[in-house]
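Tutorial handout. Part one gives the primary structure; part two gives the three-dimensional structure as tokens.
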Amino acid sequence: MVIAEGQDGYRAIFSWNELYNSVIGEKVLVLHERNGRPLDPHLGRICLISANDARLGPRHLRGLCEVSVQML
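Part two.
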């Protein structure tokens, strides 16, 4: 599994299969700017979104600070 963590401790978790064998992985994005400008301060310097999730909120992460891969 792939775990992305925000500065506030919130985590977004993806299975390897989701990222590499499904349409969800096509639009898991790590963003550092929007329209050529830095992100809004409330999003932090870097954020992560999963744009192909049916419900965006649960895997939208502000202030991305760590990404780790763990074997199950």
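Part three, for discussion. The helical segments are 16-21, 23-26. The longest helix spans residues 16-21.
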